Amino acid sequence: MRPTRELFRHWARCRDGTITRTGMLRLMRPIRQKIDALLLRGAFSGNSKLVGMCEPRYAHRDWLWTFLDVEGVEPTNNVSERALRPAVIWRKLSFGTQSATGSRFVETILTVVETCHRQSRSSFEYLCAAMQAHFAGQPPPSLLTGV
What we know:
By secondary structure, the protein is mainly alpha-helical. The protein folds into 2 domains: 2-69, no CATH class; 78-135. The protein has helices spanning 2-15, 21-43, 48-59, 61-64, 66-69, 78-94, 100-118, 123-135.
């Protein structure tokens, strides 16, 4: 747990500007080595539960460190979890859909709403424009930024 706490402490310092990204990368090098070594140790521990947890993480350990290799990637999936939360709540409250077509419709609408939200756009205005385009036989407005 100690290396993990250090990792998130350095990440938070980089995110708030207390240290530079280069400084964080330098501080993360020994933490990365320590965590990789702990995963390898667990993978060969002989404890079936520990092996089951550590072996796949060690095999794909590069994925754990994507946030160090690719600027803009966070070390957790919290942003994705928060984005999915409205869909999960909707499914729970509505008992889901009854067909594949209904599921595609819901996934499309929820994607449009989340994309518009992230772009500070009105999803209502976008959907109105998309329906007007559809009935006019034109392509829908783009959800891609800068297009």
